[in-house]
UniProtKB/TrEMBL annotation:
<dbReference type="Pfam" id="PF00440">
    <property type="entry name" value="TetR_N"/>
</dbReference>
<dbReference type="InterPro" id="IPR001647">
    <property type="entry name" value="HTH_TetR"/>
</dbReference>
<keyword id="KW-0804">Transcription</keyword>
<dbReference type="InterPro" id="IPR036271">
    <property type="entry name" value="Tet_transcr_reg_TetR-rel_C_sf"/>
</dbReference>
<protein>
    <recommendedName>
        <fullName>HTH tetR-type domain-containing protein</fullName>
    </recommendedName>
</protein>
<keyword id="KW-0805">Transcription regulation</keyword>
<feature type="domain" description="HTH tetR-type">
    <location>
        <begin position="9"/>
        <end position="69"/>
    </location>
</feature>
<dbReference type="InterPro" id="IPR009057">
    <property type="entry name" value="Homeodomain-like_sf"/>
</dbReference>
<keyword id="KW-0238">DNA-binding</keyword>
<feature type="DNA-binding region" description="H-T-H motif">
    <location>
        <begin position="32"/>
        <end position="51"/>
    </location>
</feature>
Length: 180
């Protein structure tokens, strides 16, 4: 039986989604091609019919991670920035979320990558700021909110004291953009 006409694109998307999740969780150096392909339920040989290298995969997986995370964070928000901000700051507490924000969790990993990967990360970050700005209509405030939210989530991932983590996230959540 011949393959579905969209089979190659669907396979590529499965690889990108698997890689996005793994890269966000473990960083570039913590993930191997075999692990990505296993998560995508495909063979290693199939990888090379879609990507030239692990770096190319990383480059293409970052925006996918951002898009999937955005879709998950929007659930239940009804276009409310306050609800979105809550979901963003508490994303690691929600076991239903399968994709955490790559902007926050790859922040230190990205600075060690080549300029093209850094540009991709920058585009994802810029899109995040634009998205916040669409709720606030205040570019400067959107930049402050983005930096606060991303920094809080990145920092919270490093803390072992759960009460301190919750205190940090709650403080950032209650910080109104008008106060900044």
């Amino acid at each position: 039986m011949p393959w579905d006409i969209n089979h190659k694109q669907k396979s590529r998307q499965r690889i990108l989604e698997a890689a996005a999740k793994l890269f966000v969780e473990q960083g570039f150096d913590g993930v191997g091609i075999d692990e990505v392909m296993e998560k995508a339920n495909m063979t290693r040989g199939a990888f090379y019919s879609h990507f030239k290298s692990k770096s190319q995969l990383y480059h293409e997986a970052i925006p996918v991670a951002g898009l999937v995370a955005k879709q998950q964070l929007e659930v239940g928000c009804q276009n409310s920035f306050k609800a979105l901000k809550h979901n963003y700051l508490h994303q690691s507490n929600d076991t239903q979320k399968t994709q955490l924000c790559p902007i926050a969790l790859l922040i230190s990993d990205i600075r060690h990558r080549d300029p093209e990967i850094r540009k991709t990360y920058e585009k994802v970050f810029s899109g995040f700021v634009d998205y916040i700005d669409s709720h606030m209509d205040d570019r400067k405030g959107a930049l402050v909110q983005a930096a606060t939210m991303i920094g809080a989530v990145a920092l919270a991932q490093t803390l072992t004291d759960e009460s301190l983590k919750e205190e940090l996230l709650s403080a950032c959540e209650s910080a109104a953009h008008n106060d900044m």
